[in-house]
Amino acid sequence: MTPDIAMDQAQLEIGRVGRRVCNMMNALPPLTSKLATQQEQSAAVEALGKIETLEQQVDILHGHILFYLGRLRKEPLSQAQSDRQIMLISVTDQLESIADLIEDTLVPIMDKSLHAEISISPEMQSTLDEIQDKVAHALLDSVNAIRRGDTQRAKRVLNTKRTLNALLDKVLAHQAERLVEHNPNRLQLFSIEMEWTESLKRVYTVTKRIAKLHLREKET
Fold it and tell me: What is the pTM of this model?
């Protein structure tokens, strides 16, 4: 098998990893508290279990792909082939990093919120859900940019930054208003909501790296 064909095969496998990471992000329920309905709490718990299963699959595929790509170094590679190999390794690592962020950061925040006596305001819930939706769509675009060689999707990921920043500013403004309220749980609510938004922002930051890797490859 030639290096180019081998890397085509690796890229298909990376697409499988990407789909699973997207499924993890899509399975992530909206931020839910102990004060939510029993149905909402049950759905959140079930979703967290699904995310854990997907993350284990991502870890296994990640290891296989890196081993496979590493073996290509035994063959002489052109500069273009070497650059592509490095790009594929980096994309694989970035996808695994997103899976880790979801499993090790967002899932624990969700678990903490499910045991907290907090009440998320309808306005804040709407903003948090919109941020989560934008990040999920950006992740899907970045994965499809790699899978399909779609430059427009990669550019769309980068263009999401302005919208996300505006939503994050909206969260901060709302938080500033809520902090003056005489709610004994306001600091816990503040902490959970900020951890959630910061973690989603980190997912988007890694997602942008994947899009930039695709664009960089297309420019060379």
Answer: 0.92
